[in-house]
Amino acid sequence: MSDIPPEKIETTFKKLDADAEKFGYHLSPDTDFVKELIEGLLINEETYGYWACPCRLADGDKADDLDIVCPCDYRDADLNEFGACYCALYVSDEIKRGDAQPEPIPDRRPSYSERKIEKAQIPVQEDEASGAEAPSGLAYPVWRCKVCGYLAARDDPPPVCPICKATKERFERFM
After folding, report:
1. Is there a contact between 55 and 87 (Cβ–Cβ < 8 Å)?
2. Mapping DSSP to helix (H, G, I), strand (E, B) and coil, where does residue 160 land?
3. Distance between CA 60 and CA 48 in Å, rounded?
């Protein structure tokens, strides 16, 4: 048992559930299970300073863990293919209604060594905040939310995705 107060778990549950429904997502109908996951998210927030997925091992470095900050980069792909995200916090309409059950989902996250190799192979781009030029023909650079795919054409990424509420660091330069 953690030191997270039950009322904080309950408040977080209510907010997360309302936000999920507002944006077309559903939390698992197993409320006790969801509250255990929320407790894990809150423990990870106390430990690391961010909501690392409680079903994965976090590195403790936010830059390395951005892909597993809840909602993770893999949520929508898992929902589309399997009807639930990796930890089954978010589920499809069918699972929410009880017409289907979540099944084990393979982890899409590359291994630690694969992530390090990928990171080493990505060429360093100009600092987006420096006002680097947009691709030819566009007035502004295009930013893509890595969680839900939302696109924004503007000088800098939005501070919060208007669709899934992911924060600014979850955006990547798309074009």
Report:
1. yes
2. strand
3. 6
Query: What is the phi/psi pair of residue 44, to 5°?
Result: -65, -35
Average pLDDT over residues 156-166: 86
**Count of C-beta atoms within a 10 Å radius of residue 26:** 19
Encoded tokens for 36: 């255990």
114-137 pLDDT, tens per residue? Answer: 887 777 765 544 444 445 454 556
Q: Is the pLDDT of residue 90 over 90?
A: yes
The angle formed by the CA atoms of residues 72, 78 and 84, to the nearest 5 degrees, is: 95
**Which pLDDT score, from 0 to 100, does residue 162 have?**
85
CB 133 within 8 A of CB 146: no
Domains and CATH numbers, the chain: 6-120 (3.90.460.10), 124-175 (2.20.28.10)
Instruction: Output the pTM of the full model.
Output: 0.75
- Average pLDDT of the chain to the nearest whole number: 88
Q: Which of 81, 136, 128 is nearest to 108 (CA)?
A: 81
User: How far is it, in rounded angstroms, from Cα 134 to Cα 142?
Assistant: 8
CA angle (105, 106, 107) in 5-degree steps: 110
